[in-house]
Amino acid sequence: MNGAESLVRSLLASDVDVCFTNPGTSEMHFVAALDHVPGMRSVLALFEGVATGAADGYWRMARKPASTLLHLGPGLANGLSNLHNAKKAGSGIVNIVGEHASTHIALDAPLTADIEGIARPMSAWVHTSLSTADVGADAARAVQQARTTPGRVATLILPGDTAWTEGGAVAEALAPEAPERPDAALVEEAARALAGEGSLLLLGAGALTEENLALAGKIAAATGCALMSEWANPRTERGAGRVAIPRVPYPIDLALKALEPYGKIVLLGAREPIGFFAYPGKPARLTRPDADFVPLATAAMDTGAALEALVAATGAAAKSALIEAASLPDLPPLSPLTPETIAPVIANAIREGTILVDETVSSGGYLPAATKGAPQHSLLQNNGGSIGYGLSVSVGAAVACPDRKVLALISDGSGMYVPQGLWTMAREGLDVTIVILANRAYNILRGELTNVGVQNPGPRAIDMLSLDRPTLDWVSLARGMGVEATRVEDTAQLALALDAGLEAPGPVLIEAVM
Amino acid sequence: MNGAESLVRSLLASDVDVCFTNPGTSEMHFVAALDHVPGMRSVLALFEGVATGAADGYWRMARKPASTLLHLGPGLANGLSNLHNAKKAGSGIVNIVGEHASTHIALDAPLTADIEGIARPMSAWVHTSLSTADVGADAARAVQQARTTPGRVATLILPGDTAWTEGGAVAEALAPEAPERPDAALVEEAARALAGEGSLLLLGAGALTEENLALAGKIAAATGCALMSEWANPRTERGAGRVAIPRVPYPIDLALKALEPYGKIVLLGAREPIGFFAYPGKPARLTRPDADFVPLATAAMDTGAALEALVAATGAAAKSALIEAASLPDLPPLSPLTPETIAPVIANAIREGTILVDETVSSGGYLPAATKGAPQHSLLQNNGGSIGYGLSVSVGAAVACPDRKVLALISDGSGMYVPQGLWTMAREGLDVTIVILANRAYNILRGELTNVGVQNPGPRAIDMLSLDRPTLDWVSLARGMGVEATRVEDTAQLALALDAGLEAPGPVLIEAVM
């Protein structure tokens, strides 16, 4: 067995059975191994950002890692910004990068680069296999790392000769280290804090599963504390019958206002709230200067155990959590598409089990309120802030959950960073409905210009934030990549297109002109 | 004056007057400064790889650096693979990256990343400005670095507060260090080597200007040595009336054969030839094991001075170089499009001064012979091997040379890595004709499968190298980004479309189905 085959067999032994790939010459033996070894689903991407973003989305929904297969330093570089988002989301990814044969690296060939150096800023673990005999065991370690709570980007670099040489060995799966449980004294301190006035339980990361939210709801019922989640969360279970919690707003002034009431804040899978950016003359920390924090559990700890302990300490076990009733906003009368008018239309389109991928940037402000009583759904957001994640994450979510509908809400500016995911959706027949929110501008930046203190931006500055010269035609773009598409310009057309898109089994793109 | 304005004014003082940009919040003050300071042409890209690739193409044609303006670590990451290509090509780029305000970095905001760490693998120089007062001087140093022979990627990282705070100062231009001249003893040794049997003068980098090629031609006439250039070169002046030199072939067996005759090789702007990849059972070095090298001048040295010295040492000053006569291949009879049939059609389309951007990968094998007697043109190739450079480099070349036609030959697989350059071409009305060579496969990899020793690849391996499920529709893709497009399927249609495309003043895309 050569090293390539030992890699595939070891990944399968560790229950990694999906590979999102854009291979090159140095990966040809891995590609060949796919024919010898049954069980690994390989999904081709035309750009590496699709592969890494898909692996991110796959982790969030499958709760186990996928692998990638990327081509040397530049291929890894192309996948880096979505690895950044995955890292910030705590997604586990076995990120495999081919390298030149060991003997070739020193010759500084055209594609030679410092792969470890490129990988390190976005990876929790980086390792280069030294010989064929190591490849299987290194793969098992990479999976173990990827599975470490909350999930890690583990980059394994495989020189070509470790792939093509005989002497590979299949490695058994390695259990990840169990996540740390919360300190008992901190649990008591948190319970005391939450029982007081002006207290907030701030949740993030793994705390937003259905079960954990139910526990948080009991705690709120027992203590009277407020519940809130971080601005962005990798996956939030939402909808009728679940505990709904508001998010810290993105705009700095709204965030300051939302957090102003709280003097005691328990952090559970969340961090102390800070501004997305620094703004001149505004505080970096979003909480009151006198706020006390109880750092009960980080995202890397066992957030479920922390919530259970907190339920016990607050005597909340028998309490009833406030759960969201089923309710949908009325459909607006026939209207042009605006952030306000699209929200009820989208809320009404959500079906039981829909995976809602949110990359709305400036167009999504009305969605949380409109959708909170919708049928139960999973909400995936971007923790890393690097726009261009939504289409790729949707690919991975759809591969992970072929029986669920994916509804991707993508701003036009965001979608253009990594549009190539559309082709993979068509190739794999993935059940994704994409709504492109086409305001034809980097609209968020128009607000940010003012926020950072730019007075009276001139025409050249405004022009740098405009995407209307030429207008992007998303219907043509989608068709160019084999995805059916339609353009809508009012709420009635959007509602019809959403119904048709969600009914269709494969990908459909809707360009919503705002 | 705030730091942002001092940046723009200092770049202008150093003769950097083009900025390829995809800005975000942390760069808003620089965007605003464009309105206060006349003279900087800002070109918006929808993806950072377009900006970095455009800066590469701009350098090659303008012979001076452009700047970029990228958004934090992930924005830089998106531009990294084309920076890799620029680094390998020796292109000078002032790569400017916004960073969080100094006070914000430690808070680990969503977009926080190790920007210096991300930049380092692809940059010759990396610096973070420490205060507003430093920004202007740091910009001048970055330009000085970018201009250092043969050209360097200089990354300047600017924390937001250095941009928005008052106290900026405009810096004067700094002269780059003069490139080293060749050692006199080595010149003599090179002259002796070239006078012998089986000698080769291998050229690369700056040695391929029209003037330098003329000097090389004289040396060949005086000594009888062969002339050859590296497989890929950042810019080669070619066509009727110039000295034509063959390139080392890409396929390893052909390369070994082409270099077999030579026992004495003088390197002038070139490196010892090595395989693009390592292939099992084949040598990594492409020259005879007994070949002697004279390392006369690296790419970082004064290649023109080296050639002049070699002309003197070989007594070649009065010799006549063999120059290429004007000659064009006959147009083939009406034929389907193949690598062999497209070459004469393209050769006949080349006009005086055309800039030919070559990203043909497997489809370009017949082009060098077909085009060598065509009207004078500049050939831009990819030294870094990371495909997805061609459309972006074409943007920069067209911005640098508005009075010349750019003809970009792009393989379909390559074009899909960074297709967003099409939108910038439309926005700026750039005079680029793009031919997409649509063989609907990663065809080069089918050959590489065999080269690396994979026997009988199975259907799943072949499927990973196929781009025909679904078929990419480049006409739709181009129109989606505002570029006129047409599809051709035979040589007559291609010839007509090329004429029309080159006649039109703006961008036109031709999908050539092979």
Automatic annotation (TrEMBL), chains A, B:
Query: Where is each Thiamine pyrophosphate enzyme N-terminal TPP-binding domain found?
Result: 1-105
What would you give as a GO molecular function for this chain, any one?
flavin adenine dinucleotide binding
Entry superkingdom: Bacteria
Q: Which residues does the UniProt record annotate as the domain Thiamine pyrophosphate enzyme TPP-binding?
A: 375-511
Question: Which UniProt keywords are listed?
Answer: Thiamine pyrophosphate
Under what name is this protein listed? Acetolactate synthase-1/2/3 large subunit
Q: Name one Pfam family in it.
A: TPP_enzyme_C
Q: Which family does the entry's similarity section mention? A: Belongs to the TPP enzyme family.
Q: Which GO terms describe its biological process?
A: small molecule metabolic process
The record's InterPro entries line, in alphabetical order, gives: THDP-binding, Thiamin_PyroP_enz_TPP-bd_dom, TPP_enz, TPP_enzyme_TPP-bd
Originating organism: Pseudodonghicola xiamenensis
Q: Which Gene3D superfamilies match?
A: 3.40.50.970
